[in-house]
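ok here's cysteine desulfurase:
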Amino acid sequence: EIYCDNAATTALDPEVLNAMIPYLTNQYGNPSSSHALGQKAREAVEESRHTVASLLNASPNDIFFTSGATEANNIALSGAIRTYDVSHAVTSRLEHKAVLQTLGQYSQEGELDVSFVKIDSKGNIDFEYLENLLKFNAQSIVSLMHVNNEIGNLIDLKALSALVKYYDGILHSDTTQSIGKYRIDLQELDIDYLVGSSHKFHGPKGVGFIYINKYKKVKPLIYGGAQERGTRGGTENVAGIVGLAKALEVSYRDLEKNHNHISYLKSFFIELLTNGPIKNIRFNGESFSEDKSSYSIVNVAFPHLKHGGSLLDKLAQLEIYVSGGSACSNLTQSGSHVLKNLKVHLDRDNVRFSFSRHNTPQEIRHVVKVLNQIYQEDEGIAKSKLL
Ligand code: PLP
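and the structure:
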């Protein structure tokens, strides 16, 4: 069994599990209770908030825990739109559905105009086009992701924030795929809303966070108690929050080491694949590039198997776990909106490989060997059919 689907989710780190266990067992207090058991839970939540804030060079007051990045994106966008009466949004067709559907809903209700930035066939954003949009639409909300979850494209957040701020815009970035992998310094970056999801960096599922710049506010999305300072009612997921903070701490503790290890795996994979027997391999987006894409994601456009059948199914049968697009697009059966919008390589078997610190060079070698075997066997079958 080889798991190369780390953009969908990651394995829980044992150190993270250990940190969570007390809060799943004897430390079961409600952080809002005033007795000692409750206060122990409160301390754990606030300590976790400090950890997350210090790793991102933010203030604990700017960090709000949520159920994940989908909710955090919803809070950021809906919150900003409703708080500041924003009437224009700028985004890209390659964003995650949590962003596209949220903006789409406001647009359908007639409350928001949404402009899409121009992108090239590799998914790069046309910054000049973006600047023009901002020039003619003052105080827009701009939502552009740091790392694309399907093709791995990486954007320069610093350049983006400088541009958006020059035109007085509000900036939200879905950083779900980059938190824990790239150092993000919120003192340096002028960004209003940023999100993270613990299960993408070896933490538990169902917990995430939103950073809200101290100069910005949001109306809550979930009304209820005064938890998360009124921004998100509901009893805190204490064990999840502790796990998220520990997972982020572990990820940033070994950031350089992990970065080097995973980038090596990616380039080793590309090298073995492009020098192997499978002909006509292409790459989706900027997957192939070292500086324009994340070091952990590569999206490959393989030629269809002549003998039919899907490459993804064949890999799954051989216990190599990868993905065609995002895990969420599997649910809708409509295929990847990201690849559709790039309009290239749609007539191919597109496979996303996403690596983590748990993968090894031996695994990469094995994955490529299996891919080569599948194509060689397919070629053999196709030839024998011709005879
Ligand atoms: N945004 C991006 C870019 C993602 O990759 C994901 C992952 O599924 C999400 C948002 C949603 O995160 P969550 O599973 O925490 O809701």
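+1. The longest helix spans residues 361-386.
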